[in-house]
Write a structure and sequence with these properties.
heterodimer; B: alpha/beta; 8-stranded mixed sheet
Chain lengths: 328, 356
């Protein structure tokens, strides 16, 4: 078990490293010029452009820039800006090109907002999606099943940004049924109340695919020979469904769930943008617009870590559900 | 259990001694309505299983062997199956019975051993718990008592180190061991009828014989009736007392198993036996029954077997095409029944064998 985890952690680290290297290379392979982006259009002289390039460290060879970035991650690094030297301790993600703020501060103050939004949404879509999916499966072919499948397909077919916009517009802004997003500084109560609208719509929308996954998985499980065996024991049908059907039907769902939560944690971009949630997704989008390499690298690092970590959690969790996948 | 109070109507006496009828299937039809039409999986099937005896139900895939026995335990989806006729298990009428009745008789009066123990045991539950669950469902005992009973059962079916094995998962068992565990599960409530649905098909040949011996030994010990569903005639020869040969959902010949195998009287049974490789005549070409089984959606008129029957010319008139043959005693043979229009089937088949 321990060697398994160590091996997985080593693998995880190499995946994160590979992601960072490719992001770095891709950034410079593309038509990117952060200095140009920062240089005021009307008063941008070649001298000024050169000065900015130099101050950002973009004049150094690529390999050196990357090594310095890495040094910052593990031991910290010093930044010289306008004559002052600032030490940035490990893990140093650098300073934003555009805001001059520490990337660590920029991202780690926003990350919790994304986490809260993602987890609230996940709570909604797992409960709603799994419940409806199980109901549809055990009532297969009945009007209840058709209603659930039909409505979830219809709901899921509407583009997400349209739905999210409608929710943001009507219940939140015009009718004032649901409160608007406010930052945590205005209190825990208002903060979570404000998260309700974005989390609900994100959760309900995602639940449509969970309804489908769960229904299919449960139907497949119920057609298994071991369900017939369970019935032939003379135990109540409910025990057959819950004890023998549900757990087996859930094992593929757990995998998708882990990956989906990871995807949401790396940024619920549209939701954050529409509801004004100050999360990591929105900040990353702004960074892409400004060609703000340190912030992009920082959010890629967080994203890669979250995905790799969730994968590990899924694999370990899976081994608890399915004894055939015991880790060795 | 003769109580009518708990919803089980008692219509005839319980089976108690060897030879008593435990299961009386009469004119049973099982039909699955589908979008393409009615699938007649079982039509007008009648047979009896008796305490202390093994009844073999033999036929090709899709002949209705498994479907008919799953009806005994009520394992078909009632919404998508039409069952008519009568199934009397130990005096209890099961056709049209509510789920609560089935829940009571499953495992206590009739249990089933399924074909593939790999898929028939739950992969996530420990073997001991799976057996104990069936015992707990019908006995007011504590979990630990039920688990002890499960270990006893594993021991009984010849699983070494049953205490340790009970705590393992099915994937930690070999194929033969899994089937033994499945049999232990079937017998945990001492049912009067054990239905073994091709219990050896998924096992390798060396293990097959062991499992059959085990079923035979346990039958002697428990005195229960066994229904052995199989397409393997060698298995029938070794283990069965009585036989029903099925074709396209109908019984076509029944009688004493050894007699039927030694002297078949229905062309289909004869064809099945002819298609068996024999050890004595080496290099003789195997003779297959021509054609393939009919679609259960659209059974041929008259005798379902007529399109494949080599002997239909010897039936006067067009009876084979137009009339469903009724059960009748085979002329010249005692204790044998068949559905066939041949005037003297035994002689016809003997002559054919002589020619070969």
């Amino acid at each position: 078990m321990l060697t398994y985890i160590l091996r997985r952690v080593a693998l995880a680290l190499s995946v994160i490293l590979a992601t960072l290297v490719s992001t770095f290379l891709l950034f410079f392979a593309g038509p990117s010029d952060p200095a140009q982006a920062m240089c005021p259009e009307t008063r941008c002289t070649p001298q000024r452009l050169e000065a900015i390039t130099k101050s950002l460290g973009l004049d150094k060879p690529l390999a050196q820039q990357f090594l310095e970035y890495f040094k910052g991650l593990f031991v910290g690094r010093d930044f010289t800006y306008a004559g002052d030297t600032v030490h940035c301790g490990a893990p140093c993600l650098g300073y934003s090109f555009s805001t001059r703020q520490s990337v660590n501060t920029e991202l780690f103050t926003r990350f919790p907002n994304t986490v809260v939004l993602a987890l609230m949404a996940a709570a909604v879509f797992t409960t709603v999606g799994v419940t409806l999916g199980i109901l549809a499966a055990i009532r297969r072919g009945t009007p209840a099943d058709r209603g659930i499948v039909g409505s979830s397909q219809t709901f899921g077919a509407i583009p997400y940004y349209v739905l999210a916009l409608l929710v943001a517009l009507y219940p939140v802004v015009l009718w004032n049924i649901l409160p608007q997003y406010t930052s945590i500084s205005s209190g825990v109560g208002p903060y979570f109340a404000g998260m309700l609208a974005p989390a609900l719509i994100l959760g309900l929308y995602t639940s449509t695919s969970y309804t489908r996954y769960t229904r299919n998985s449960m139907l497949e499980t119920l057609s298994m020979d071991y369900i017939r065996t369970a019935r032939s024991k003379g135990i109540p049908e409910r025990t057959v469904l819950v004890k023998h059907g549900f757990r087996a039907a859930m094992s593929p769902i757990v995998t998708i769930l882990g990956l989906d939560i990871a995807a949401l944690l790396t940024g619920t971009l549209i939701t954050e943008q529409i509801f004004g949630v100050d999360g990591i997704g929105r900040r990353t989008l702004a960074a892409f617009r400004a060609q703000d390499l340190p912030v992009i690298m920082g959010s890629v690092l967080i994203g890669a870590t979250v995905v790799v970590f969730m994968n590990l959690v899924v694999d370990i969790g899976y081994s608890f559900i399915d004894p055939r996948v015991r880790l060795s | 259990m003769t109580a009518t109070a708990n919803g089980i109507a008692t219509q005839s006496a319980e089976a108690t001694s060897v030879g008593d009828v435990v299961l009386d299937v009469d004119d049973l039809s099982v039909v699955f309505p589908t979008e393409e039409g009615l699938v007649k999986a079982v039509s007008n099937l009648s047979y009896q299983a008796r305490l202390g005896r093994t009844l073999a139900i033999v036929g090709e895939s899709g002949s209705g062997k498994s479907v008919s026995s799953m009806a005994v335990l009520g394992l078909h989806n009632p919404k998508r199956t039409q069952i008519t006729g009568s199934i009397k298990l130990d005096g209890i009428e099961l056709v049209g019975a509510p789920q609560s009745t089935f829940q009571k008789i499953r495992s206590t009066k009739a249990a089933m051993v399924f074909q593939d123990p790999q898929s028939a045991l739950h992969p996530f539950h420990k073997v001991g718990k799976q057996i104990a669950e069936a015992y707990l469902a019908h006995n007011k005992v504590s979990r630990s008592v039920a688990e002890k009973r499960a270990i006893e059962m594993l021991d009984l079916v010849g699983i070494p180190n049953p205490k340790r094995r009970a705590l393992q998962y099915p994937h930690e068992f070999s194929g033969g061991m899994r089937q033994r565990a499945m049999i232990a599960l079937g017998l945990v409530n001492d049912p009067k009828l054990l239905i073994a649905d091709e219990p050896t098909t998924a096992l390798d040949v060396t293990v097959q014989a062991q499992i059959l011996d085990l079923v035979n030994d346990l039958q002697k010990e428990f005195g229960s009736a066994v229904i052995l569903i199989t397409h393997d005639l060698a298995v029938v020869a070794e283990t069965a007392d009585d036989i029903v040969v099925m074709y396209a959902g109908r019984g076509v010949e029944k009688g004493d198993a050894k007699e039927v195998l030694a002297q078949p009287s229905m062309p289909y049974t004869y064809g099945l036996l002819q298609s068996l490789p024999s050890h004595s005549e080496d290099l003789a070409e195997l003779k297959a029954i021509q054609g393939s089984p009919p679609s259960l959606l659209n059974l041929p008129p008259g005798c379902s077997f007529h399109p494949r029957c080599e002997f239909k010319d010897q039936v006067p008139g067009d009876a084979c095409w137009t009339q469903l043959p009724e059960w009748r005693p085979t002329p010249g043979l005692a204790n044998r029944q068949l559905r066939c229009h041949l005037p003297d089937p035994v002689r016809t088949l003997q002559e054919d064998e002589g020619v070969r």
